[in-house]
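Appendix B, example 12.
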Amino acid sequence: MNRTEMEMSGPGVSRQGRTVKRRRWGRLRQQWKLLGLFEIDQQHEFYSLTCMMKEGLCAAVQNTIDNPLPDELSEDDYSLEVTQIHKDFRMETYAGPVFASLRRSLGMTEKEYQHSLSSEGSYLQFISNSKSKADFFLTNDKRFFLKTQSKREVRFLLSNLRIYMEHLEKYPHSLLVKFLGVHRIKIAHQRMKYFIVMQSVFYPDDRITARYDIKGCEVSRWTDPAPEGSQIIVVLKDLNFEGQYIQLDQQRPWLVRQVEIDTAFLQTLNVLDYSFLLAHQPLHHDELSQSHSFATLIMRAKKSVNPSSSPTHATSPTVPGVVAEEDSTLLSSELNCASTQCHITEMHSGNGGTDIVSPEEDQIEQTSRVGAESADLQTFQAQNRRLLPNFKNPLHVIDGPEQRYFIGIIDIFTVYGFKKRLEHLWKRLRHPRQTFSTVSPPAYCLRLCQWVQDHTK
């Protein structure tokens, strides 16, 4: 071998090759950061991991399918840990029956959940401008988020799982993100990874025109928007939203009150730094017209809410989704009709006899009923617009007069401990007379509620 050949095959060439690969990878990552969302194909660093996640999740959900849920959850269900051994890894599932119960309460079947998590399509990676070191993945249909978490964050969620479930049961319209599973994956010769599965607030995202992550403060709360006409997905922040409003009309009191309820709950957990996610898209013409039958509206409402436990407030109007007693009577007759203008012949029992209504009287009664129904329908539509979208996550969708809003509260794991107290003192010196995210949980709660008050109409 001559000298030139030796130089070409020596360690220097190997180092040079690695350097070129790193540069290529760096350029790729830079492009991905611009895109925000991209497919995890076979060349991607997380391809092997996400394939294992898919396989493990498919088996974990199958275990739930094969073992039906009990009528009532027990203390053992909250502490249950199930380990499943696979060829190259093992997967642990925490509190499986509890999360399966939550999925069921959201109208989600285990089969459709399993299909989304383990379909043939590749997962997607989402690159955010978050300071978190977590990795974010979406299922191929963008319906569910998978996020890596620290052991501390997972333990925090599991230790508060019971009161989280109680909150969602008491307030079925809660805007808190819906956690659907907690898992740990162990791959040979690698560190264990904890991750959670969540319902995506921004689903379906086909027509969403803008996304925001709101914390109710000023410092570091601006993001450069995407270039005009580009396909780049950018999550904007508080300062980007200045001068705009969430236009809800009759829905505004409900939203303000629900944010108060949810942030008060988070205050009891002693957490801060959570985000109020917001996105919007214009309504279609047929969505603007609200052309739904009264029966259809009530059925959608009943599917989306537990009327007996919806959040109420003494000074606020009826909570969306609550069906009044007089409407329940109308519902029973509506559901037995082929249309909202069905013909009803009433039979009036007397002293052992039966009076049949004449055609003329019947026509007058029908006209009167249609008029009353029209008024009821308008009231129902006004109070229940948020329940009209026929989506898989209607609890995070609210319709205003012209825009559809996707709203949720996420990232609820930051506890106000010693480190955060020190950070608060440091930021007070660094940013005098400016608002920043690291404040006490009561102050954070109050400030976010005030932001919603100030930016809704």
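The chain has 16 helices and 17 strands. The mean pLDDT is 78.
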